[in-house]
Amino acid sequence: MFIELHILQNFAPSNLNRDDTGNPKDTEFGGVRRARISSQAIKHAMRKHDVFRNTIKTDIGFRTRYLTRELNDLLEENKKPAEESAAITRAIAALFTSKKGKMDSDDPDRTMVPVYLAKSDAEWLRAEIVAKWSELLEASKIQIVDEEDDSEETDKKKKKKKANIPPVLKDIVDGLIDRTSKQAGAPDIALFGRMLADRPITNIDAACQVSHAISTHRVNMELDYFTAVDDLQKDEESGAAMIGVTAFNSACFYRYARLDWDLLVKNLGGDKALARKTVEGFLRAAALAIPSGKQNSFAAQNPPDFMLGVVRKDGQSWSLANAFETPVKPGRDGGLMSASIEKLKEYWAKLSKVYGGDGITTATLSMDGDDNMEGWLKKLLGSLE
């Protein structure tokens, strides 16, 4: 069973998601430039939104290169000395994220790559560390090194990597690997997946797919030339305290997401009640969460005007982006939302006619409709097995 979400959302002038030059992200689609918001920005806003956490009523995971900070804070609650805690947590974090046991050369408290773990994983580590404190303290003083084998093979020295890893340290890391390989640990990890290159056994397949949002129409980037006034400047003095330029655009976006119900249940260890809450949190956050880029400058807090929710049992997947392959154009009096809604509905009808619509439940939430958020959610959630 799959849940699909099709959203049309019009944003006032904004720069919600910047590229490496500070300009709003964009792309070419249908032969013209479109505004774009990356899926990463959308997913981050959703998983960090209060409505997601308040709906699932459990801790979300944390993604960080500073696993040591999380563990050190927990160990401080156990009255463990800071320097000793730091040595132990660095050793564990290094070995978990890198088979060579390396940390970032620029910051000894930062791992080589981010980890995505649940709060329960950190609590498990805290308990293991406290229980084996003395052994770990000694183990943390042993440097993990690569040794060279001097044996000759066809007149060349053969290098063999040997890790001198203390057993107590290896046991804890192996325990964390085993633990994370069997469970997502948090609803957001179950939804968005986890990947750790050096520990592929801990990878979790994402239960949801989120597309990059693109504008339904052609977009041109605009520039805001701004100045900042110096409050202590005298009347006879001229000039601004600062001059700058900010890029922005305004666009009606099409957003698409697809959620695999069966995989979500599997990732959550078969807990259907939590899976249902996770779907509800996902749907609520999809409607309310907005990327935070330059919001202090633009305050583009614009909720969706139209949402089509779909629960399907046929396993098909329909992005409706091609409804806008020919860009929408404003009418004589302006406006893009009404035309975008009509094009989306027309394209949905065409797909249903060609490929069939059996086993599909739909729910529409529109500013012009009679339903509300709660009724829309009730219809979709009621279709889940």
Structure, described:
The protein is of the alpha+beta class and 385 residues long. The chain has 2 domains: 2-58 and 206-381, no CATH class; 63-185. 37% of the residues lie in helices and 21% in strands. The chain is built from 13 helices and 13 strands. The chain has helices at 39-48, 50-56, 67-77, 82-97, 119-131, 133-139, 167-182, 187-192, 261-267, 272-288, 295-298, 337-355, 373-381; strands spanning 2-14, 26-29, 32-37, 62-64, 115-117, 152-153, 156-157, 208-210, 213-215, 222-228, 242-260, 306-312, 360-366. Strands 1, 2, 3, 8, 9, 10, 11, 12 and 13 form a 9-stranded antiparallel sheet that branches. Strands 4-5 form a two-stranded antiparallel ribbon. The chain has a two-stranded antiparallel sheet with strand order 6-7. Helix 1 (39-48) crosses helix 10, helix 2 (50-56) packs antiparallel against helix 10 (272-288) and helix 3 (67-77) runs antiparallel to helix 4. The longest helix has 19 residues, at 337-355. The chain is globular. The N and C termini lie close together (8 Å). Residues 156-161 have low confidence and may be disordered.
Question: Which structural class should the secondary elements be placed in?
Answer: alpha+beta
Number of alpha- plus pi-helical segments? 13
- The number of distinct β-strands equals 13
Helical coverage, percent range: 25-40%
Low-confidence stretches: 156-161
Number of domains: 2
Sheet bearing the most strands, described? 9 strands, antiparallel
What brief labels describe this structure?
2 domains, single chain, 37% helix, nine-stranded antiparallel beta sheet, two-stranded antiparallel ribbon, 385 residues, 13 helices
